Amino acid sequence: MRNKVPTCSPTRMLVDLGAVDEGSVDAAMIAILVSKVVSPIAIRAALARHSRRGRSGITPLRLALDRWVGDELPPDSLLESRMSTLIANYDLPPVEFHAMVAGYEVDFLVVGTPIVLECDGWGSHALDRDQFEFDRIRNAELVAEGYIPVHFTWRALNDSPQKVADGIRAAAARWS
How many Cβ atoms are within 10 Å of 2's Cβ, its own excluded? Predict the structure, then answer.
């Protein structure tokens, strides 16, 4: 008889991570959602299964998941997650995540404005020729429809979050 190697589901690992390092749960959850290892529905089911009074790790995971409650759409990237955190931390105007604008799904639409916030990772948007071309076509069509696409990179969000926040705030004030 073979020895069974104990397995641990990704959601169980998130609960365990929350018990020892609450600050890491957001990034870990986003990473497994982006990689399509689990869905938000699966994480909610695991929360229900593992929830009990005094269970360490449940609260950090529940809080991380609640940031993405919306329409059960997980972020497409860690960059979108970083932008969402920046929007919350800098008390920026409300946004609609993965809004449909002029027939395109955009990363964020600043509510009450024509401003579209796009999170552009190097690998997805600069190194992929088809994506690069698509982004230019979409930008032109968004502008023709009266929207203002504003693009942000990982480096900008990490190195200059205050500058990014100030730019978003100024654009929202100008176009609201």
Answer: 4
